[in-house]
Every structure is written in structure tokens, then in C-alpha cells.
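From the methods appendix. Each design record in this collection lists the discretized structure first, followed by the designed amino acid sequence. Records were kept in a plain field format so they could be parsed without special tools. The example shown here is representative of the layout used throughout.

RECORD:
C-ALPHA CELLS (415 positions):
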């Protein structure tokens, strides 16, 4: 993509009402546009990051047998009444509206009930199970406070997966496979080393649920870590009884601030009983489905990545989610022909390049923009670099640049 064609522009100042680092940087760089508090649009640059994150999640969900679909955003009242979750006293984030004829509808803040109601129409016998489905969807939630940029939106993208199993054994196998898949996801996103499978409150059916918590100063959660044993406990379930059952002691734990980037729940047969979600087993008897639900905060993960890796100059994208692998800067008239040729060559080799071909912009501004935008590799073509024998390359997270020949650059990008 040619930067001269990009409609977004970088900004020196963040909006004064935006306090979160992730939103400040993403807005200044032109990845997101703030519509109102907690509501953000994603520009072509921001969308590329989101799509990269989604693709990683999609690959790992497919690998464990997930089938992708997409549910509706408009939800029926009767669907949610079956479990009591239409009530604003029970779910405090509902956005609701009415059809022209007065029928009440809700905007999907989650999809358990809606998925069950749909799958009910297809599930007949035990032979139809397991069913594991997932979607990427914009969830709408009337969150009380939205002050953490894209970490907590009133509109945000979630991957939600739902598993329908024959029995507890089949459920547990899929639940454990999902834990492993999530570990792969967060490590591919570059935050694996700081993301902990965390014991959290489990609701009605199990003692614990599992959250995936990433150490992050901008997060809203507090987790107690046992680094040696790799055990993490959300403060909401931190008590002597639980610690004893996990074989750890309070004084061995380190308190950290985290952001919840994913979570998984075992509903057992509780919800299925409420909604009469059942099948006939091999003896012709009626049985209730074992249900699990598995979320990943896609937009929140993007925000956490910004928070964790940014430096005082701007964003630092891990290669796996960066919108472009290379930021190519053409400096000065003398470099133009060579830079253009390199852009064409890289494109033809399938390397994703953002090409700063802007004629009227100073070298200083181009460097500052490259730092703010955060592509993993900056490649400068200038009179000086050509005289030194090639291009000046620098990793975004590195401080020193070096001059490499065209051949060296091309082979390094292929590896
Ligand atoms: P939280 O405790 O942070 O409110 P939650 O318990 O409501 O999250 P779920 O409803 O299960 O979480 O959503 C699944 C995932 O979606 C969460 O793990 C989180 O990563 C993400 N998420 C939840 N709420 C938001 C939000 N308002 N904005 C952005 N991401 C969110
Ligand atoms: Mg919530």
C-alpha cells in the first residue's frame, strides 16, 4: 500500500478526552477512529491488524474442530427469557430496542442462548454430537465505564465458541483441547510469556472457570501468580480453601495487574435443562447436552499488544499481527526510482509493504511516522544508503540500523 493513497493521517496529539495509552497511540497513528466513548471504528490499517489476529484465532479453532458461523446481532426476548437473562437486573449491559410493532428486541451482548435455540433445531440423536461452533462478532454492551480505550468497548469484537457434548468426558476433552489452543493463540500473538491460565469464579456448575490473563498495567484485573508452579488465581477466588486445594500458599504468590484476554466456562447441563436442549442417547432416552463457552477478546487483545510493546516513540507490532511486514521509506528525489522498483519487487514476492512514497514530507516526519506506526522492519532508500551499497534497515524494536544489499534484504525477508 502506498502511504500517499492512505486517507488516514498521523497526528501529533492524542484527543484530550482519551486517557488510555492504547487508544492514544492507535488514534494518533490512524489505526482507529474514536466515534464516542467506548466506540471505535477501525481504519484500513486497523482492520489489517484485526484480521491478522482473527486469522490466528480462526486457524487454532479450526484445528480443534470448530466450525465457523455467524449469528444475528438482533436477539429475541423470548430466547433470553428461558434462562432469565433478559432481565436487566440479571444482565446489566443490555442494549434493547423495539420493532415498529412494539416487539422488544435486544442487541447481542453474548450468544449462548441464541446458539442453543438454533442448534436445538438440528440436534436429534447422540450421533450428531459433538457440535463445536464459533464466530467472530461485534458484541454490543452498555458498559458502565469505558475508560481503557479498546480494552473495554461498548462495541467490540469477540470470538465466541460454544461446545455441545454428549457427556462430561467428551466435554472435558474439548475443554482441555481449547486450553491448549488458546495457549497457542496467545503465543502466536506475541503475549504468550505473560499470559496465564487463571483460576476464576466459575458460576453455577464448577468451582472454577479459567481466564486467560495477560500481565498489563492498563488491565482491570488483579491476579496472584505462583511463577514456579505456573499457577495463577484471580483475586475474586483468592481464599484459604481454594489455595489449599491448589497446593499453594498465600505468601508464595506475587500480585500482578492483568487484562483478561479470554475465558472458558463449563455450563454442565444447567443451561441445556433451562432451555430443554436435549438429544436421545443410544438407548432411546432423553439426555441434556453438556455445554461449554469460550471467548477471546479480539479487539482487547489488539489493545493489550499495543499497551505491552509500545515505547516512547509509538507502537511496536509483533510480526504476526503487524499490518505490514515492511515499512519502506523513500527519501529524496535521488532515491525515488530505486525505491519504486524495490516496492514492486517486494510486492511481487508477496511481502506486505507500506510504502512511504509521499513527496512533500520531510525525512524527519517519515521516520517519526514509521516509529509511531510500528511495522516490524523499516527499510530506507536514500541517496546516502545507495552510496553505502544498498538500503538502511532497522527492526522497530532495535536501536541500530545497518546497510544491506538488495540480495541480503530479499533473502532475509524470505526466511
Ligand atoms: P470482563 O470481566 O473484562 O468484563 P467478561 O467476563 O464480561 O469480561 P465475556 O463476556 O466472557 O467476558 O467476554 C469474553 C472476552 O471478551 C473477555 O475475556 C474479554 O477479553 C473480552 N471482552 C469482554 N468485555 C469486553 C469489552 N467491553 N470490550 C472489549 N473486550 C471485552
Ligand atoms: Mg464484562
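DESIGN:
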Amino acid at each position: 500500500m502506498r502511504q500517499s493513497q492512505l486517507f488516514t493521517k498521523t497526528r501529533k496529539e492524542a484527543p484530550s478526552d482519551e486517557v488510555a495509552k492504547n487508544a492514544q497511540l492507535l488514534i494518533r497513528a490512524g489505526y482507529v477512529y474514536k466515534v464516542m466513548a467506548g466506540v471505535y471504528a477501525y481504519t484500513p490499517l486497523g482492520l489489517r491488524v484485526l484480521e491478522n489476529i482473527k486469522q490466528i484465532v480462526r486457524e487454532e479453532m479450526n484445528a480443534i474442530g470448530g466450525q465457523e458461523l455467524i449469528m444475528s446481532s438482533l436477539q429475541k426476548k423470548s430466547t433470553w427469557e428461558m434462562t432469565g437473562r433478559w432481565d436487566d437486573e440479571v444482565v446489566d449491559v443490555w442494549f434493547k430496542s423495539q420493532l415498529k410493532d412494539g416487539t422488544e428486541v435486544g442487541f447481542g451482548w453474548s450468544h449462548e442462548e441464541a446458539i442453543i435455540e438454533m442448534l436445538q433445531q438440528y440436534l436429534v440423536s447422540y450421533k450428531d454430537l459433538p457440535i463445536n461452533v464459533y464466530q467472530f462478532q461485534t458484541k454490543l454492551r452498555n458498559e458502565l465505564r469505558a475508560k481503557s480505550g479498546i480494552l473495554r468497548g461498548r462495541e467490540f469484537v469477540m470470538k465466541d465458541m460454544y461446545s455441545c457434548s454428549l457427556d462430561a468426558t467428551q466435554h472435558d476433552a474439548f475443554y482441555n483441547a481449547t486450553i491448549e489452543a488458546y495457549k497457542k493463540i496467545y503465543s502466536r500473538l506475541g503475549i504468550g510469556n505473560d499470559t496465564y491460565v487463571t483460576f476464576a469464579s466459575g458460576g453455577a456448575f464448577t468451582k472454577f472457570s479459567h481466564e486467560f490473563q495477560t500481565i498489563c498495567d492498563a488491565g482491570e484485573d488483579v491476579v496472584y501468580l505462583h511463577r514456579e508452579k505456573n499457577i495463577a488465581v484471580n483475586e475474586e477466588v483468592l481464599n484459604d480453601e481454594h489455595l489449599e486445594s491448589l497446593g499453594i500458599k498465600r505468601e508464595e504468590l506475587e500480585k500482578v495487574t492483568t487484562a483478561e484476554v479470554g475465558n472458558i466456562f463449563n455450563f454442565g447441563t444447567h443451561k441445556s435443562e433451562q432451555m430443554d436442549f436435549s438429544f436421545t442417547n443410544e438407548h432411546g432416552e432423553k439426555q441434556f447436552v453438556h455445554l461449554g463457552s469460550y471467548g477471546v477478546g479480539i479487539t482487547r487483545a489488539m489493545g493489550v499488544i499495543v499497551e505491552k510493546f509500545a515505547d516512547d516513540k509509538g507502537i511496536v507490532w509483533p510480526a504476526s499481527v503487524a499490518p505490514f511486514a515492511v515499512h519502506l521509506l523513500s527519501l529524496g528525489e535521488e532515491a525515488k526510482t530505486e525505491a519504486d522498483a524495490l516496492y514492486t519487487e517486494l510486492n511481487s514476492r508477496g511481502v506486505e509493504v507500506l510504502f512511504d512514497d509521499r513527496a512533500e514530507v520531510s525525512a524527519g516526519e517519515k521516520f517519526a511516522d514509521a516509529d509511531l506506526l510500528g511495522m516490524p522492519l523499516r527499510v530506507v532508500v536514500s541517496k546516502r544508503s545507495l552510496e553505502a551499497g544498498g538500503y538502511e534497515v532497522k527492526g522497530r524494536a532495535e536501536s541500530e540500523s545497518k546497510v544491506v544489499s538488495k540480495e541480503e534484504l530479499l533473502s532475509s525477508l524470505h526466511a
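APPENDIX NOTE: The chain has a mean pLDDT of 96.
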